[in-house]
Design brief:
Layout: E1 2-6, H1 12-17, H2 27-37, E2 40-43, H3 45-48, H4 53-61, E3 68-72, E4 82-83, E5 99-100, H5 107-119, H6 122-126, E6 130-136, H7 145-158, E7 162-166, H8 177-187, E8 193-196, E9 215-220, H9 232-236, H10 242-256, E10 261-266, H11 273-290
Parallel strand pairs: 1-2, 1-10, 2-3, 3-6, 6-7, 8-9, 9-10
Antiparallel strand pairs: 4-5
Helix pairs in contact: 10-11
Amino acid sequence: MIEVGTASWTDKTLLESGWYPQSADNPEKRLAYYAKQFPVVEVDSTYYGPPAEQTTRLWAQRTPDAFTFNIKAFSMLTGHPTRVSALYKDLRPETDKKNIYPGDLPPEAYEQVWSRFLSALDPLAEAGKLGALLFQFPPWFGIKRSNKEYMVEVAARCKPLRPVFELRNASWFDGDNKDETLDFMREHHLPFVCVDMPQGYKSSVPPIVEATSDLAVVRFHGHSDKWTSTDIHEKFGYRYSATELDEWAPKLQQLAERADRTQIYFNNCYRDYAQTNASTLIDLLQDVEGD
């Protein structure tokens, strides 16, 4: 099974692009329209602030039975700097810092962040619409024992939910480390996230198309020449050509043969770039399957 979708359905530039029909003039209608075009979506807003249970309940109510949401893990859970204002109000520490890390919280508060984040997803899980939880680690999360142990810990904390892992430090894939990393993930049934992204940057990792469990995930970040820009639309404002996607189609088909379920997300979220690229890839995959 190959499912293709995008990493957003609410981006401001997407709404301005004309991709949605004029009749889709509110959040409920836009999500319903999106769900008619694609079977899956990745929610990235949950990285910046944990979701409310009433929000996930609405998502479940507004989508068809077979629709799937993948949820990006809250920044605090992946070791990224987290805005104090993004934390649950009763868990915010007294500090002058704008951003904090897990070590800045008392252990019991950190445990509460985990518990509340996961429980807020219950409406999606109960509706059978919760796919995987994306744990995208920071560029400084390199290959070492403690980081491997944390990935195993994440999988245990999330059960019965499924975490998938995106690594953004090249040390995981340097030389013999590549096989070590993939073997480790296979041993612990940790789904590997393949990424297509600009090369030559500190956070760059190669596009390794491998399955390490029954679930395979691929994320397309684009190839913007402004990858280091703090403007998110400059960073991800890249439209894949049909030729580029045509080269990917057979690789993705082969990947799908090594997993029970394969999810592909376009994260080049600027205007309708992600949506049009996703539609093109769906057509190309159907052509490959038909050959």
